[in-house]
Design brief:
6-stranded mixed beta sheet; single chain; globular; 424 residues; alpha+beta; Nucleotidyltransferase, domain 5
Length: 424
């Protein structure tokens, strides 16, 4: 039996999942789990990357106790964020994407290269935290002067295991600097912003072996977690998907990027997949209800929250694309600011959030069908949000699609699948 290890790290937790093939199916077992989250440092939101690397190594040790012979491992995380490197050392802090430092930077970037041109070249939706804006903020702050490189978070963790620098394709595309036409870093974009050319090395594809750690081959999966999640969906044909977690990533596979004016207007992204393009949109996902629970009813079981929200009759909705919900000090106050009147009880906020997400999904699907010229029948939902029966029902009602909810570790499955296929 050959065993493999997927290290899948999200914004709130990370997990090490061992996998193996049995009767043609991938079997999995979680061997280590650890907490993650943004921290506040000098008024900024940052990641504790040293703690992340420590947990990655601890989890590998735990995996080796259970499975002394592991063929390979790979790491995936969220996109856009990176670590500046000074040779082999990280330049701290490592800023988190929800930090507000890019707010004043965005217009300066667009003065150098208008967003319409940026979108035409890269096909990446506008998000205030895209890597391109973060890097330009670091440039203006002088942080790039002594930096030898920048590594996306999973590639930094892989560097911490192997000492090898790598830039993986799917994750690189999330940053807004990769050409939709060539799949390589766009020299015109880099030149327009006068970013250090030394940063932009050749991109490597998922399935590439990088190095070794404790006798285990270290590989690149689709290191952007959504890229791995889409690979992990047992989909029949090419249908719609939502990778439902802190963010809801809703999209469809296309043969090539779609970078026309309609896609720009709808703010759709074209991100790298494993042999295809992911035409998708970031939608404020379970972040909304996670923050509401932290604020209104900490620790209350989700089954009770959803059951009570389903019974309420508050039927106003909010625009889940509104940036007010990105990083508010109070999520309740953010909802209050966008509602004609507040709910009479706490559960009304959750009902509002779930109904608003379903409407947001409908809007996104309408845009996909219009822009691709195709009608889709099914919507596959994977990730933590797939466990929410109330939201799934609302989504099916709002979209008119057959919702296939798969409460599986799709990201880890995709991570493992890529490793296994590369090892054949």
């Amino acid at each position: 039996m050959k065993y493999y290890l997927a290290v899948d790290i999200g914004a709130s937790s990370g997990r090490h999942i061992a996998g193996w093939l049995e009767d043609g199916q991938i079997q999995t077992k979680e061997v280590y789990r650890f907490p993650n989250g943004v921290e506040t440092e000098n008024g900024h939101l940052v990641w504790n990357i040293r703690a992340l690397l420590d947990h990655v190594k601890k989890g590998i040790n735990e995996a080796l106790k259970a499975y002394p012979k592991i063929e390979s491992l790979s790491i995936d995380t969220w996109g856009v964020d990176y670590v500046l490197m000074d040779g082999g050392d990280p330049i701290l802090p490592c800023f988190a994407y929800r930090d507000s430092r890019t707010e004043e930077i965005i217009p300066k970037v667009h003065e150098k290269i208008p967003f319409a041109e940026l979108y035409r070249r890269t096909g990446i939706q506008f998000q205030p935290f895209n890597t391109i804006y973060q890097l330009y903020a670091d440039k203006l702050a002088g942080r790039l002067d002594k930096a030898s490189d920048f590594l996306m978070i999973p590639e930094y963790l892989i560097f911490g295991l192997t000492g090898i620098v790598s830039h993986e394709y799917t994750n690189a595309t999330t940053g807004g600097m990769v050409s939709a036409a060539t799949g390589t870093y766009d020299e015109a974009v880099i030149q327009a912003l006068d970013l250090p050319k030394r940063f932009f090395k050749p991109l490597r594809q998922p399935g590439t072996a990088v190095g070794e750690y404790k006798g285990i081959k270290v590989m690149l999966c689709a290191t952007h977690d959504t890229g791995s999640a889409v690979e992990g969906i047992p989909m029949e044909g090419n249908e719609l998907y939502i990778s439902s977690g802190t963010w809801s990533l809703l999209g469809v596979k296309t043969p090539k990027p779609i970078t026309d004016a309609a896609s720009q207007a709808a703010n759709y992204s074209n991100e790298g997949g494993v042999g295809y393009n992911r035409y998708q949109k970031n939608i404020m996902g379970m972040w909304l209800v996670n923050r509401l629970r932290d604020e209104l009813c900490p620790g209350k079981p989700w089954r009770e929250i959803t059951a009570e929200a389903e019974e309420k009759h508050f039927d106003h909705t909010v625009d889940v694309y509104d940036p007010i919900f990105l990083a508010p000090e109070s999520m309740k106050a953010a909802f209050d600011a966008r509602l004609p009147h507040p709910p009479k009880c706490e559960m009304g906020y959750f009902r509002c959030a779930y109904r608003s997400l379903a409407q947001g999904y409908k809007q996104a699907i309408d845009e996909i069908e219009r822009n691709t010229g195709r009608t889709y029948q099914k919507l596959y939902i994977v990730g933590g949000g797939a466990k929410n029966g109330f939201l799934n029902r609302l989504t099916e009602e709002a979209t008119g699609k057959q919702v296939i909810a798969l409460p599986i570790e799709a990201t880890a499955l995709g991570n493992l699948k890529i490793q296994m296929e590369a090892g054949k």
